[in-house]
Every structure is written in C-alpha cells, then in structure tokens.
Write a structure and sequence with these properties.
Blueprint lengths: L10 E9 L10 E10 L2 E7 L21 E2 L10 E4 L4 E4 L1 E3 L11 H8 L4 H6 L4 H9 L3 H18 L1 E7 L6 H17 L3 E9 L10 H18 L5 E5 L7 H13 L4 E5 L7 H7 L4 E4 L5 H10 L2 E4 L1 H6 L8 H6 L4 E3 L13 H10 L5 H7 L2 H6 L17 E4 L6 H4 L8 E4 L2 E2 L1
Parallel strand pairs: 1-5, 1-6, 7-8, 8-9, 9-10, 10-11, 11-12, 12-13, 13-14
Antiparallel strand pairs: 1-2, 2-3, 3-4, 6-15, 15-16, 16-17
Helix pairs in contact: 4-5, 5-6, 6-7, 8-9, 12-13
Bound molecules: N-(iminomethyl)-L-glutamic acid (NIG) and fe (iii) ion.
Length: 432
C-alpha cells in the first residue's frame, strides 16, 4: 500500500480487519485487509491494503473484502503518520452503553437479598425501599462524592471497550439534587476518556415529600427542573419511568411536552413491569428510544417502527429481576426497529458493570444474533443517544473511537465472555 494513496493522517493502523458496523458490506460491515487512519481525533481514511498483501485469509462468513476504497479527503499525504501494524487483528467501533444510572450513592445489597428470599421488587418500592432508598443515599452525597462513587463503575465499562456512555439522573428528585447528579455526570465526561451523554430522569419516582401528590411533583419537573437543566445545558435528553409504581402515561406526556418546549429529545422506561402504552406515547414525541419493553405489544411495536424510535434491550435487568417475560424480539426484528443493548447499570435492577455480559445475555436470553448484539452496542446504541452522526460505526468523519482485538471473528466478542480484553482502546484518535 502506497502511503501517497492515503489522506493525511496523524496515526494509521494497517493490516487490520475492520468490523465497521456500517449497514453496507458483509457481516458487521466487515472490511478485511484494510488500513484506518485518524486525523484530529476523527477517522480520516479507510483504505484497502494492496491486493498482494500477505493477509489473504478471510475468516469464513465475514465477507466484504475489497469492497472499495473509502477516502475522506483529497489532501496530500502527511509526511509521517505513526504506523501501527496490526497483522490481521480486528478493529470494532468503541462500544456505546446507551442506558445507565451509574451515578448514585450507596448500594442495595441487603434489599436485593430480601428479593432473593421472595419479596417482589414492586413490593419493596411500595414500602419506601427500592429507588427511594438510593434517593436517600444520593441526596446525602456532594457532587464530588458522587463522582468518586461512580468512578469504579465507569472504569469497569471503559476497560471493556465502552467509549460512549449515557448517564441518567433520577436519584435526586429535587431541583438541586437532580442538577447535582447531572453535574457529576458531566464531570465524569470531562475527566475521563469517554463521551458522556446526560439524561434528566427526574420522573423516576415520586419523592417522599410529594407522596400522594404525584401531579404536583410533575409540575415541579415541568416548571422548574427541566427549564433549569436546559438553561445550564446539563441534560441532553429527558427520560421518564412510565409504570404503575411510577408515573402514568398522562403524567409522562406532561414531562415530554415540557422537554419538547425546551428543545430536548425524550426517551422512556416503558412496558417494563406492565403494559401502559408508554411506547405509543413516546412514539408521538419521536422519542430517541424506549427501553426495557418486556410487556411491549404489537401496537407498541408498530408505533415505534413508524416513529424511528430505537428499542433498547436491557437483558441484565431481566436477568437480575428473574423476569421470565422477554421483550418481543421477533416482532421488533420483523418491523425493522433498531435494537440497542445496554447495561442499565443501577443499584437495584442491574448492578452489573459489563456491556460484554449484556451482549452475551442479549444473545443467550433474548435470541439476538451475534451480529445483532454487536449492532446493539454500536450503531443502534449511538442512534439511541442521538449521536449516530458522531459515533457507533467506523466511518469517515466520525470520531475516532475504536477498539483493537486479538480475535479471529467478531462473534467471539458476543459468544465468549471474560476472555477478550481490547488490545488497544482508541478514544478521539488517542490510544488510551
Ligand atoms: O431501569 N425501571 C426503573 N429504573 C431502573 C431501576 C432503578 C432502581 O431500582 O434503582 C431500571 O431498571
Ligand atoms: Fe433504567
């Protein structure tokens, strides 16, 4: 491969196999025997190696070899990009964990033990435990204490290859405490090599001060919390928990209307424990995503298919709650709804900081193909957080967030758990 054929780059990985995760091409948009170059933190070149390259042994099933040169600019070659020879290693996009609650205080291990003895999650919530016990622990911490508490969880995700993470509020439930959580999330993003997108989830539970007055709390959310979060640019989206133990569809509609007035996209915890039609409501607001979905029905699937809303699957919560009901995967698949996969990392329903485990569970518990699971933590997850134009695939012009793997087949990343660690984690073009 002549360097002159490549646009100017700061760094170039050669002899790579790329799982671009673009829709075109073979499985996972694979490009064998390619080079990928980065400049100024972005992907600047994706170029086939010369046909006489010694790497001529495509893995069975991974087609896409020689599907054409993709060059992002016509500038002349840079003098000396740093060259990294991967000798056939695979590159995937960095993983996007599009649904987490990883900023919180305390833990719920005692309560979870009660659940293991047979007390239901909803029953514990009704008794003032559940989300509200984490609210007490979260209110007690300062912003910097919340950052410290979240760091090990975020480091665990990053070590597995997460380069973009969505972080929700929802354990503060006052104006000050919700903003404190969002500020902690923003701080994590500015301190660590990871893109953080923030979501205001004030409509997560009715706080004790508003017990029996849920509508008044919704008024506080709409009139004070959303406007303040929007004014300080602390939230990239607004979420709700639409459920019998949380907020009704009518209350969620009010929250969505307020979000819309402030130019914020919406999403929702929908049809997790029962079917209230939250997904149809979300679809009316062109929600970025609806998440959980164990009780989603055919009408809900049709609605989100029409609105271009992503279905976010959270198999870790299904597993941890020992739910036997699964989201309607076949209906979603045949309706062409993009399916993302995320951790839901939180102290109550999924204290499991592993996107890799979720990929495996999405396949083992929900029946996603290995390719669907990989799409679920890359391209579809990027769409679920509204960042499809910046991350989620190896594409010219996107942020250079990717992972180098010593594997023979990307399916191993889904099928095998605990075996593979990224050889390199690249964030905005830098090896981190
Ligand atoms: O996504 N469903 C609602 N919210 C979280 C659970 C939060 C908690 O129990 O602390 C979820 O599963
Ligand atoms: Fe959640």
């Amino acid at each position: 491969m002549a360097l002159s054929a490549i646009p100017s780059c700061d760094r170039l990985w050669i002899n790579a196999r790329l799982a671009t995760l673009e829709p075109a091409g073979g499985l996972c948009g694979a490009r064998l025997e390619h080079a990928i170059g980065v400049r100024d933190g972005k992907i600047a070149a994706i170029v086939p190696m010369a046909t006489h390259s010694p790497l001529r042994a495509p893995t069975e099933g991974w087609s896409g070899e020689g599907q054409g040169v993709r060059v992002g600019s016509t500038e002349t070659a840079s003098d000396r990009p740093e060259i990294i020879d991967l000798a056939g290693a695979w590159i995937t996009p960095g993983f996007v964990d599009c649904h987490t609650h990883l900023v919180y205080g305390g833990n719920r291990v005692r309560e979870i033990e009660m659940r293991r003895r047979g007390v239901a999650y909803a029953e514990i919530a009704r008794q003032g435990g559940g989300i509200l016990s984490t609210v007490r622990a979260t209110r007690a911490l300062s912003e910097s204490q919340l950052v410290d508490a979240a760091l090990p969880r975020l480091h665990a995700l990053m070590a597995e290859g997460v380069t973009t993470v969505e972080i929700k509020s929802g354990y503060g439930l006052t104006l000050e405490d919700e903003l404190k959580m969002l500020r902690a999330a923003r701080q994590l993003g500015s301190r660590l090599a990871v893109n953080v997108t923030t979501t205001l989830l004030a409509a997560h539970a009715v706080p004790p001060e508003y017990a029996g007055r849920a509508d008044d709390y919704v008024t506080l959310i709409c009139d004070e919390i959303i406007p303040a979060a929007a004014a300080e640019h602390l939230a990239d989206a607004v979420d709700v928990f639409c459920e019998n133990i949380a907020f009704s569809p009518a209350q969620c509609r009010r929250v969505f209307e307020a979000a819309q007035q402030h130019g914020l996209p919406v999403k929702g915890h929908m049809e997790q424990l029962s079917s209230l039609g939250g997904s149809q409501l979300a679809a009316q607001f062109k929600a970025l995503s609806v998440d959980h979905l164990e009780h989603l029905d055919a009408d809900g699937v049709r609605a989100i298919a029409a609105s271009g809303t992503v279905a976010v699957l959270l198999p870790g919560a299904t597993y941890f709650l020992r739910e036997t009901r699964k989201p309607p995967i076949e209906l979603l698949r045949s309706a062409g709804v993009p399916m993302a996969v995320a951790t839901d990392l939180n102290p109550g329903t999924c204290p499991l900081a592993s996107i890799r485990l979720m990929m495996n569970m999405a396949s083992t518990l929900f029946g996603l193909s290995f390719e669907e699971a990989l799409i679920g933590v890359t391209r579809a997850a990027a769409q679920a957080v509204g960042l499809a134009d910046r991350v989620g695939t190896l594409s010219i012009g996107k942020q250079a967030d990717f992972l180098v793997w010593d594997i023979g087949d990307p399916a191993e990343l889904v099928c095998e758990f605990g075996v593979h660690r990224p050889r390199q984690r690249v964030f905005r073009g830098d090896i981190t």
